[in-house]
Amino acid sequence: MDINNSVALVTGANRGLGRAFAQRLLERGARKVYATARRPETVDLPGVEVLRLDIADPASVRAAAAAAPDASLLINNAGISTGTDLVTGSLDAVRHELETNMFGHLGMIREFAPALARNGGGAIVNVLSAMSWFGVKGANAYHLTKAAAWAMTNGVRLELAEQGTLVTAVHLGLADTDMAAGWPVDKIAPSDLADAALNGVEAGSAEVLADQWSRDVKSRLPLTPEEFNAAMDRALAALTAT
């Protein structure tokens, strides 16, 4: 699809990657950009149409779909990381991450799929992570939710192909946002991530590996679990040592 003249809805558009997506969509000629956030007053980008949206609240998702019936591009960006492990961490926190990072995205897709079909098929972008493929102590709930979201993305891609909807999975290592502020390492700029994702949509790509980190991690998937974990330990040690 062509980003120019599209009608896009971006979740979590008040900061970070979501704000960058909304801004680049406007700059690339989108006819309308719905910028959504749980607190709409925090959206400060001129030229967007602001909507209140909590993707973990089904009623809020339904209201957003009703308010944006002309959407042709859905950017599922909103997400959380609670820093929770699976065995010793709060099970409520694990569930909260799943409700947001996987079920929240799925709920958006289910509500917006009919509108996308009416509007010519359109496209969905799910912002995932290289952590779809590996865990880290202190953030294994996040790994679980992104792995589940990756599987969900692959499933809905098959289900929505008949109506002509492209479903693009976007993976990245770290972006220069508040969520990654504590990591003193090289990070992809939010605008570069947004451009990589939108370029992938225009190219009809099912998957975008937005940085070298995500490409390196995925290249290790054929390894045995022992080999993969050892390679990731070395990579993480090198990353934190720089």
Notes on the protein architecture:
By secondary structure, the protein is an alpha/beta fold. Helix content is 45%, strand content 13%. Helix 1 (16-27) crosses helix 5 (190-203), helix 2 runs parallel beside helix 3 (91-118) and helix 3 packs parallel to helix 4. It is globular, with a radius of gyration of 17 Å. The model has no long low-confidence stretch (mean pLDDT 94). Keywords: Oxidoreductase. It comes from Streptomyces decoyicus. Belongs to the short-chain dehydrogenases/reductases (SDR) family.
SSE topology sketch:
Blueprint: E1 7-10, H1 16-27, E2 32-37, E3 49-52, H2 58-67, E4 73-76, H3 91-118, E5 123-127, H4 140-160, E6 166-171, H5 190-203, E7 207-209, H6 212-219, H7 225-241
Parallel strand pairs: 1-2, 1-4, 2-3, 4-5, 5-6, 6-7
Helix pairs in contact: 1-5, 2-3, 3-4
